[in-house]
Amino acid sequence: MPTPEFVLRLREKIGHDQLWLPGVSVVVVDDAGRILLGRRSDTGRWSIIDGIPEPGEQPAAAAARECEEEAGVRPEILAVIGVETEEPIVYPNGDRCVFLDIGFVARVGAERAAAAGVGDGELTAVAWFEPDALPAPLTPHASARISAARAWLADPTTPARFRLR
């Protein structure tokens, strides 16, 4: 995964120390109720679309941009479905970070859904899946966010998911 330039500049100053970063993720659903997933090039797992906002970028705009860059479709963002801190990550190069993720649910019409495909190389495959027939292996955070998105789609008065420990 390409590391954003602003993170590289921070790493020059702090080395491999743990870095707190904003993150966005988006569960994209098409008119048929299928869910857009991509197979990550770094782990080989299927996942929802996610990424890091650029400095000053609004989270919803970042989620839509990441989806367009990674999967070739620009979704309509509908709602926030959750805000939570991920588990700490240690990358192979020793960099440590924790993401504070803002999760969204979004939709695309049939015409835009047909345009989905691998975009910037962060994914090796992109496909639409029925919610009850998701592929394996699936990233752990994807399952929770898909459940939250499905709950919101079934009842838009469903509150966003916040992890309380």
Describe this structure in words.
This protein is α+β, with helices and mostly antiparallel strands. Helix content is 25%, strand content 35%. The chain contains four helices and nine strands. Strands 1, 4, 5, 6, 7 and 9 form a six-stranded mixed beta sheet that branches. It has a three-stranded antiparallel beta sheet with strand order 3-2-8, covered by helices on one side. A hairpin with a 5-residue loop joins strand 2 and strand 3. The longest helix has 15 residues. The radius of gyration is 15 Å and the shape is globular. It starts with a helix and ends with a strand. The model has no long low-confidence stretch (mean pLDDT 92).
Task: Considering the chains and any ligands shown, give keywords for the structure.
single chain; 165 residues; alpha+beta; 6-stranded mixed β-sheet; 3-stranded antiparallel β-sheet; 4 helices; 25% helix
